[in-house]
Specification:
CATH class of the largest domain: Alpha Beta
Number of domains: 2
Order of helices and strands: EHEHEHEHEHEHEHEHEHEEEEEEHEE
Distance between the termini: 24 Å
Shape: elongated
Radius of gyration: 22 Å
Largest sheet: 9 strands, mixed
Strand content: 15-25%
CATH architecture of the largest domain: Alpha-Beta Barrel
CATH topology of the largest domain: TIM Barrel
CATH superfamily of the largest domain: Alanine racemase
Helix content: 25-40%
Structural class: alpha/beta
Length: 384
């Protein structure tokens, strides 16, 4: 939680309800987290994973917050995933355990940081996809006096990271087997581009093809005598397919806690999209001089821009009413005959939640019309 006494600029004033999109007043633009919707999302994914017999290790790259990670773990998650070592360090400092870093690490200094983190946590692992990483991690773990768990990352078709073939996977397993201070824990395969495919059938077909590669890798490693305890991957958009295909024993969904415009468009009424919007950016009207539109104080700096503009969260605004008007400003088109006053609030749905969160230091946590907490986003900006 944030100490309001030490950060008075974050302190809210009381708000009125009844304005379009407005629930309370905080300094804007502000990242708003609906705690009731968040908790329902967390509970729904936990139940889906339990029914499918899958271990749930949600991806914290979406929320970057110990506040949310604790709620996920309390609901049954085994821990969390982190995209970067800096994220893992920040969450570990805040008391989170059970961390898997899902991107390969590079460099001796980074390997030493990973080894130090391994000594602090009871459950910690990193992925590798090359023998050079194994060499660096082995040296660092040996110097630190720890045994570091590693997971072999398999390229399942994204061609971003991962061992590209079975021969390479077996060779990497054998190299890990010679490392005194490393322990092979399993395999990972992630298809990021599958998550936003429109249509359940298209996503299922892509997942089926990709996880077949992962299944073959796990089988090949087991045939060579490796203990493959962890077969991990998946995401919010592919959970249904991941569960139905039965290859993974652990899933890594992240965006389900928030949702965003990108996921809403892709998932529609599919079961994988049955989560509530819990994340918003609240903006204030700062200019009303142009007929038919207002200017708000949330522009390019307030949103991730890789997935188009944000969308107004409530009526009477049309879904495409917002347009960027520079670093600090956005234009919102008004319905005919509608007017807003300076200072009125409009809440907007982020187009892509993960990078949008990274633009803010805190969540303003709300329940109904009340601001109930302000919590730090500890891993924000920790991309090293």
């Amino acid at each position: 939680m944030i100490d309001i006494q030490r950060a008075p600029h974050l302190a809210p004033s009381l708000a009125e309800r009844g304005q379009p999109g407005s629930r309370f007043r905080v300094a804007t633009p502000a990242l708003i987290l609906d705690i009731d919707a968040l908790d329902r999302n967390i509970a729904l994914m936990a139940e889906r994973a339990k029914r499918a017999g899958l271990k749930l290790r949600p991806h914290a790259k979406s929320h970057k917050s110990s506040f949310i990670a604790r709620r996920q773990i309390a609901a049954g998650a085994a821990g969390v995933c982190c995209a970067k070592l800096g994220e893992a360090e920040a969450l570990a400092e805040a008391g989170i355990d059970g961390i898997l870093i899902t991107s390969p690490l590079a460099g001796g200094t980074t390997a030493r940081r990973a080894a130090a983190l391994s000594k602090r946590l009871t459950d910690f692992a990193v992925v590798v996809d090359h023998a050079d990483q194994v060499r660096e991690l082995e040296a660092a773990a040996g110097a630190a006096g720890t045994r570091l768990k590693v997971v072999i990352d398999i390229d399942v078709g994204l061609h971003r990271t991962g061992v590209p073939d079975m021969q390479g996977a077996v060779a990497l397993m054998q190299r890990i087997g010679t490392a005194e201070h490393l322990a092979l824990n399993g395999v990972q395969g992630y298809g990021g581009s599958w998550q936003h495919m429109k249509g359940r059938e298209a996503r299922y077909a892509a997942v089926e093809q990709g996880v077949a590669i992962l299944a073959t890798a796990a089988k090949s490693l087991k045939a060579q005598g490796a203990a493959v305890a962890q077969i991990t991957g998946g995401g919010t958009g592919t959970f249904g397919a991941d569960a139905a295909l039965g290859i993974l024993n652990e899933v890594q969904p992240g965006s389900y806690v928030f949702m965003d415009a990108q996921y809403r468009d892709a998932l529609g009424d599919d079961a994988d999209g049955a989560f509530e919007q819990s994340l918003f950016v609240q903006s204030s009207v700062i200019s009303i001089n142009q007929p038919g539109s207002v200017t708000v104080d949330a522009g390019l700096k307030a949103f991730a821009t890789d997935a188009g503009p944000p969308r107004p969260a409530t009526a009477p605004f049309a879904p495409d009413a917002y347009a960027f008007r520079g670093d600090e400003h956005g234009r919102v088109m008004l319905p005919a005959g509608h007017a807003l006053a300076i200072g009125q609030r409009i809440e907007l749905v982020p187009p892509h939640c993960d990078p949008n969160v990274d633009k803010y230091d805190v969540y303003h946590v709300v329940s109904g019309d009340k601001l109930v907490d302000i919590v730090a986003i500890e891993a924000r900006g920790r991309s090293q």
